[in-house]
Amino acid sequence: MYLRFAALGDSTTFGIGDPLGDGWRGWARILAAAMGRAHDVSFCNVAVSGATARAVRTDQLRVALGHQPTLASLIVGVNDTMRSTWDPVAVRDDLMSCAEALHGHGALLLTVRFHDHGEVFGLPGFLRRPLMARIEAVNRAYDEVYAHFGGIRVDLADCPEVRAREFWSVDRLHPSELGHRALAAAFADRLATEGIAFPRPSQLPTGPPPTWRSDLSWMVTEGVPWFGRRARDLGPWAARLAVARARRTPSVMEPAAR
């Protein structure tokens, strides 16, 4: 088969967490390489670290369509949930527009449903619950994409690897090499049910094992600046949540209202 694979999305599809030389590899490139062992594959990765659903629609979609894909992965939305500009209606519209365009050009869609990021981060409940509410809004948009345009998808909440520490890089936001390989294998298994069979991507790591020095270097150069940007976005939101929670909690000096 001649397969034209376009990968759209954010830092996960870009490959953050799976270093290769001076750059990044990631699950999509691992999947494309595995497909190439049985088929003629043309691979185009237009994902950008930090991308939102709107950025995929305005900046990546045109390039991906120019590749004339027969397969297209569309995995984005987590960055939207962590911004003060969060707008679930806009995210839904952007995802639907991208999916409609890709499907209309004959591409089989590869999508996901997201897991509870707050659980992986270890966030306190009063932050975890509203973040998960935003994640679920993105998941509902992907449910609509799947209902309208079909394709294949991976529900990350159903993947036991997601709860394993080795699945994640040091920031617990991006998959490690093992995490990227697990995601590539999950898509490979589902593609086989669509008649696109090829050797399953290896689950054995090939990159250097992480060290405290490499983890520290990544956190200083990438992680801390990212968390700083998100803190500026989400700081006021988190503060309002904390105040609202405090107001709903009866004082220890006063009896609870009956």
Protein model, in words:
Helices cover 51% and strands 13% of the residues. The protein contains 9 helices and 7 strands, in the order βαββαβαβααβααβαα. A 5-stranded parallel sheet has the order 4-1-5-6-7, with helices on both faces. It has a two-stranded antiparallel sheet with strand order 2-3. Helix 2 crosses helix 8 (177-193) and helix 5 runs parallel beside helix 7. The longest helix is centred in the C-terminal third of the chain and has 37 residues, at 212-248. The chain is globular.
Could you provide a short overview of the structure?
The chain has 258 residues and is an alpha/beta fold.
Helix segment tally = 9
Number of strands: 7
Q: What is the structural class?
A: alpha/beta
CATH homologous superfamily heading = SGNH hydrolase
Largest sheet: 5 strands, parallel
Any idea what the radius of gyration is?
A: 20 Å
Instruction: Estimate the global geometry from the Cα principal axes.
Output: globular
In which order are the strands of the major sheet placed? Answer: 4-1-5-6-7
At the first level of CATH, the class is: Alpha Beta
**Rounded mean pLDDT score:** 84
Intertermini distance: 69 Å
Give the secondary structure arrangement, pairings included.
Elements: E1 2-9, H1 11-14, E2 19-20, E3 23-24, H2 27-35, E4 40-45, H3 53-66, E5 71-75, H4 78-81, H5 88-104, E6 108-113, H6 117-121, H7 125-149, E7 152-155, H8 177-193, H9 212-248
Parallel strand pairs: 1-4, 1-5, 5-6, 6-7
Antiparallel strand pairs: 2-3
Helix pairs in contact: 2-8, 3-5, 5-7
